[in-house]
Amino acid sequence: MIYSLRGVLIFSEDNYIVVECSGVGYKCLTSSETQRKVQSQFGNEVKIFTYMSVRENAVDLFGFSDIEELNSFKMLISVSGVGPKAGLAILSEFSTSQIAIFISSNDSSSITKVPGIGKKTAQRLILELRDKFKTLKSDNKNNDVGAASAAKNVLEASKALGVLGYSQNITLPVLSELDASLPVEQLIRAALHTISKL
Fold this sequence. Notes:
Elements: E1 4-12, E2 16-21, E3 24-30, H1 32-38, E4 45-54, E5 59-64, H2 67-77, H3 84-93, H4 96-104, H5 108-111, H6 119-135, H7 144-163, H8 168-176, H9 184-195
Parallel strand pairs: 3-5
Antiparallel strand pairs: 1-2, 1-4, 2-3, 4-5
């Protein structure tokens, strides 16, 4: 099992990168988030955390820029009906903190925005991962008890911003970068400040 790679980033496409280690190029399927993080390192040494998927007719290596995204990926594919490519598609659409918010707040409709993820799969993700995502360090600030409350604050702020005409596609990425333990009013003000700069 290959746990990580340290080598030179020699190639990058929409959904994969190639890291050369001791003359061998390893193709790693990646999320758009990892692509964004390593793009500036082209031609330089990078460290990629990996997950190897071995099937009857294929061996695929999935690469992630940090251990948090790798752990999220492992959680996602632990759900029945969610394979590695579906897990990667979810992580390409949403950040780890956004996924944690959706799961802890039973927001299956947002998860179904990922191509190939239907309502039943989204509900299964929520059912099976609710407790697991509470322990994931999605914002490195909230404890298990506060995670649900923080998710509720973010959703309330998102709904309020929706009344002002902002879609969740704009508000949730902004809100997920803020301290979710803040009161709803402060989250709204901070989000509006950030959105005004976009």
